[in-house]
Write a structure and sequence with these properties.
It contains 8 helices and no strands. It is mostly helical.
Length: 117
């Protein structure tokens, strides 16, 4: 989304909130776009909260949802801890990690040994 590419998590959240006030129900694409915008602008806690909202709205998160959060951890000092939490949540959600998931997790955690540990 445009908000995601421009690191405008506030704008993405505003658009998402506006969507919820209309007759339109948020779907996987609108959730994932907002999750990604939040993650790319270092708002991982908001992105994780959105995944919780997905459950409430009966929208099932997919591997892209979790990959977006992991990519938001890149370059952060405690990235490996957060990355492992996301990987655990992915397993709890009974989703299968993709090669993108593992590559992004390795970048965030700093090594493949840590990810596959």
């Amino acid at each position: 989304s445009v908000c995601e590419r421009c690191c405008q998590w506030q704008a993405a959240m505003a658009v998402f909130a506006g969507l919820q006030k209309t007759q339109l129900l948020p779907n996987l694409i609108s959730f994932n776009s907002t999750v990604s915008a939040c993650s790319k602008d270092t708002q991982s806690s908001k992105a994780v909260a959105l995944i919780g909202s997905m459950k409430e709205q009966r929208v099932r998160a997919d591997v892209v949802s979790y990959n977006s959060i992991i990519s938001g951890h890149l370059g952060h000092v405690s990235a490996w801890q957060s990355t492992f939490k996301v990987l655990d949540n992915l397993k709890i959600a009974t989703l299968r990690a993709s090669s993108i998931t593992y590559n992004t997790a390795m970048s965030a955690a700093g090594s493949w040994e840590a990810v596959l540990g």
